[in-house]
Design brief:
There is one protein chain. By secondary structure, the chain is α/β, with parallel strands linked by helices. It folds into 3 domains: 2-192, NAD(P)-binding Rossmann-like Domain (Rossmann fold, 3-Layer(aba) Sandwich); 200-288, N-(1-d-carboxylethyl)-l-norvaline Dehydrogenase, domain 2 (Orthogonal Bundle); 290-426, Rossmann fold (3-Layer(aba) Sandwich), CATH 3.40.50.720. 42% of the residues lie in helices and 14% in strands. Helix 8 (194-225) packs across helix 11. The protein starts with a strand and ends in a 5-residue tail after the last strand.
Length: 431
């Protein structure tokens, strides 16, 4: 098939690349900005495993072609794929309204953007209003973005599930054909209405965020009770009614899409006249949790932090990502600055964007080497659980740090082993 993909999100790039790799002719329409500039220079703006290589391969083969937003769809195209940012709803309406209608072929518009519930129905009305002959039967379907950052390409090409909201049978069949190369192990497509698909996407995110915040509350209580949250987590996960996923406490969750989805669900609840008490509390707990490492440091040093040096390992909002959107590290760094602390940071991928976020500051030093960041530090805080941090050279750390204090924001280290190695250790619900 020939497709027109619109957007400069990670979802847009992954979808366009994966669809091109299956033999489709894909035109990727990009808004002006950094993403378009980097792609024009042959660079991939998202550091996702396998994405840059596959994009280059499909571009060289001529199956993935970059285009501008203003470029009209090609004559032979029948599919428009919207993977826009959540704040680009007006642009989505404009794209649908500008689709050529004087043609025999009907349009299939696949809405993969995370917009408010009911948006696909609104786009369907806009498409019908723009259609001069109603018998063409053009359709808008909802196919919510369920890709996982850090494993985005594989989470599309080997998806555990697809939520397909489509009322027209022909549209269901055409989307199923588009996804057939990625849907061979078992039929992972779940059919539902477009509103149901959009709501399910938000409900999933809300549930995951709720589990995370609940576990963070339990971890804080474990600190108070003097019990090990790791044993509690294992006991909870062993109950099949609960399961193990998203039960790991930490120093808060981040990510632009994740946070926006939770806030969008809360806004939807409030807009319906219902109170979003649970989700509001989930968000409040998460914001408080982003300061948990700072509070532990504050208490350890008896509130005397001015002039101290603190090292942070990991500032991206999750491993395998270069993005720092709503990352717990940002709030932590601001709290440390407010107390006159000099912050030294290492991250495998996010140093450049952190530097852009912070600007030139004397109290922020970025390091390409994690041990250089920890040298002379009064404390080392692990915020993002990159695998490179899981088994550090503890002897080297102890010899180089001013004070052997480790604050584990992701509970990746073993407290007993760390203490036996001569460190003071604080985790999340572990000590």
């Amino acid at each position: 098939m020939q497709l027109e993909v619109y957007g400069d999100t990670l979802c847009a790039l992954v979808s366009a690349t994966a669809l091109a790799s299956a033999g489709n002719q894909v035109f990727l329409h990009l808004p002006e900005g950094n993403v378009a500039q980097q792609l024009a220079q042959g660079d991939c703006p998202f550091r996702e495993p396998g994405l840059a290589d596959l994009m280059a391969e499909q571009s060289q083969a001529g199956r993935l072609v970059l285009s501008s937003l203003e470029s009209p769809p090609h004559q032979q195209s029948t599919v428009v794929w919207l993977a826009l940012s959540p704040d680009a709803l007006e642009l989505a309406v404009q794209i649908v309204a500008m689709l050529p209608t004087h043609r025999a072929e009907r349009w299939l518009v696949v809405n993969q953007s995370t917009f408010p519930v009911g948006t696909s129905e609104s786009l369907q009305r806009a498409l019908v209003e723009n259609t001069t002959e109603s018998e063409t039967g053009s359709a808008v379907v909802s196919l919510p973005d369920l890709i996982i950052e850090g494993n985005a390409l594989q989470s599309f090409m080997r998806a555990d599930s697809w939520l397909l909201g489509a009322e027209q049978v022909w549209a269901q069949k055409q989307v199923a054909e588009l996804l057939r190369p990625f849907n061979r192990r078992r039929d992972a497509i779940m059919l539902m209405g477009s509103r149901e698909a959009e709501f399910t996407k938000l409900a999933i995110t809300g549930m995951l965020a709720t589990r995370l915040s609940y576990m963070n509350d339990m971890a804080n209580l474990a600190d108070h009770l003097g019990v090990d949250i790791e044993r509690i987590r294992q006991g909870m996960g062993a109950d099949k009614r609960i399961g193990e996923a998203y039960l790991y406490p930490g120093c808060g969750f981040g990510g632009l899409s994740f946070s926006r989805d939770v806030m969008s669900l809360a806004s939807t609840l409030q807009g319906s006249g219902m109170q979003a008490q649970l989700l509001d509390e989930v968000l409040r707990i998460n914001e408080r949790q982003k300061e948990v490492l700072f509070r532990k440091l504050w208490r350890h040093y008896g509130t005397e932090l001015r002039g101290r040096r603190v090292a942070i390992w990991g500032v991206s909002f999750k491993p395998e990502s270069s993005r720092i959107d709503n990352s717990p590290a940002l709030k932590l760094i601001e709290a440390l600055w407010a107390q006159g602390v000099e912050v030294h940071v290492h991250d495998p991928r996010a140093l450049q964007v952190l530097g852009e976020w912070a600007g030139e500051r004397d109290d922020l030093v970025l390091h390409d080497d994690p041990y250089a960041a920890a040298e002379g530090a009064d404390a080392l805080m692990l915020v993002t659980e990159w695998k490179a941090y899981w088994s550090p050279d503890l002897l080297r750390l102890k010899m180089s740090m001013a004070h052997p204090l480790l604050l584990d924001g992701r509970n990746v280290w073993d407290p007993d082993f760390i203490k036996q190695s001569g460190f003071t250790y604080f985790g999340i619900g572990r000590s």
